[in-house]
Design goal:
Length: 224
Amino acid sequence: MRIHEWPSAERPREKLLAHGSGSLSDAELLAIFLGSGLRGEDAVGTARGLLTEHGPLRDLLDQPPAKLVRMRGIGTARACALKAALELATRCLRAELDRGTALTDPESAGRYFAQRLRGLQHEVFAVMFLDARHRVIGFEEMFQGTINGAEVHPREVVRRALQRNAAAVIVGHNHPSGNAEPSQDDRAVTARLKQALSLVEIRLLDHFVVGDGLPISMAARGWV
C-alpha cells in the first residue's frame, strides 16, 4: 500500500499534525524528508531500509553530504534537505541560548552541547559562560584530544571565565565511542574545575557528557 492509502491516523504527516513530531518513529521522521520511496516501496519502508543499512539515525545523519548523496533512496536533493534541517535545528537552539534570556531549563544546555559535540571523531571539551542571571555570554571549544580523551586545564577555564566576566559556567565534552557514561577521570576533572572556579567565586553549574542518546548531566547524578 502507498502511504496515502494508509489509515489517516497512521500516516506520518497526519500523525505529526495531530500529536506532534515526538510521536513519530525515526523511520517516520525520515520518511517525511524522503517524500516517496524506492520503486515498490513507500517512503517509510525506504526509510527503514536506510536505517537498517546505515543506522542508527545518528550514524546516518552524521555522514558527510557526499556519502548521503550516494545512498539509495536519498540522492542530492534529499541529502541537502537533511543537512539543512540539522543546521536549522542547531541554529534554532543556538538562538534560544543567545537571545539574552536566563537559562532556566538545564536540559536546553545539554541539547546544545549535544548538537555541537556529537559525532566528532575526537574528544572536545567545551565551556558555556553565563552571567549572574544565567544568561549565556558565550560558548567555546577549549580543549581537543584524541579519540580517547582531551587534557583539561582548569586554570585556563578560570582565566577565560574571568576574561568574559562570567558568574557561572557549564562545561561538557563528548565521548567519540558513543558511550556517554562518565568515567572516573571525568568525575575527577569536574571536582578540580569546581574547586578552581570556586576560588574566584564562579559557579560550576553542570558537566554534560555527550554520546549516543541524551547527554548525561553530572549535576543530576550529584557529582557537581
